[in-house]
Amino acid sequence: MSDEPDLVAAAKVVDAFAGAHLTSRISALESGFAGRRGSDVARLLGEQIVTHELLAAAKVLKKAAGQIHVVIHTVGILLCLPDLLDADERVESLSLGAGNTGRAFDLETNLRVAEFKFINWQGGSETIRQNSLFKDLFLLAEAPTPKRKCLYVLETEHPLKFLQGGRALDSVMSRQPKLWARFCERFGVRFSTVGEYYAVEGSKVELVSIASLLGDRGSSVFVDSGREFDATQLDDR
């Protein structure tokens, strides 16, 4: 049986340590340990609830947090389906989890192929999100199918700003050499920026906001999204 605490117990241990303001807590620890002798440190650790139990609890929460992105992707897509699909539209395949599932897209029906991005863009430098978005757009645009090609995003303002902007394509695909090679084979040096490519090829893909499909409760989940998540670590399709 594992010595690690369960998720609820781990959350309580970490919450007891972090309090309402983790940054302030860390600052207090930095000040509290400054100038202390080695003989004082062990006692001070106990007083501040810095224990091996705390470290184990943090590990449990880190593991769970790594799975949350997959849960959001899975549940988000499924909740969109009732309002997204036409009455006579039939689901042919779904790719809901992480990694290369052997399926080309998150959703394929008899009428459309689609990718989903459940990201709350912050409007700053978001290179990882941009890279992942462009990859999905390009693969949809290049898909040899007469079906509708849809890229569903939480909102379209920031994605469109990127897609119509001047970021260099070699920068966007610098961490995806296979994708860059495929792009160069297809277009050569015809395009140098994302905006140049999107102006010509972007009409092949519908960029659609899914906020209305999720409703107020669903959309609010993403309002406080924090640091960027590198989707390419999960999906090498």
Notable features of this structure?
elongated, single chain, 10 helices, 2 domains, disordered C terminus, five-stranded mixed β-sheet, alpha/beta, 237 residues
Distance between the termini: 37 Å
The DSSP helix count reads: 10
* Strand order, largest beta sheet: 1-2-3-4-5
General form: elongated
Task: Give the structural class.
Answer: alpha/beta
Helix share bin? 40-55%
Low-confidence stretches: 223-237
The whole-number mean of residue pLDDT values reads: 87
- Biggest sheet: strands, sense, closure? 5 strands, mixed
Number-wise, the strands total: 5
Q: How many domains in all?
A: 2
Oligomerization: single chain
Rg over CA atoms: 23 Å
Instruction: Tell me what portion of residues adopts beta-strand conformation.
Output: 5-15%
Order of helices and strands: HHHHEEEHEHHHHEH
Written overview of the protein:
The chain contains 10 helices and 5 strands, in the order ααααβββαβααααβα. The chain has 237 residues and is an alpha/beta fold. The protein has 2 domains: 7-62, no CATH class; 85-233, no CATH class. A 5-stranded mixed sheet has the order 1-2-3-4-5. A hairpin with a 2-residue loop joins β2 (107-109) and β3 (112-117). The longest helix has 33 residues, at 52-84.
List the helices and strands and how they pair.
Elements: H1 7-18, H2 22-33, H3 38-47, H4 52-84, E1 91-94, E2 107-109, E3 112-117, H5 127-142, E4 148-153, H6 157-163, H7 169-172, H8 177-187, H9 194-201, E5 206-209, H10 211-220
Parallel strand pairs: 3-4, 4-5
Antiparallel strand pairs: 1-2, 2-3
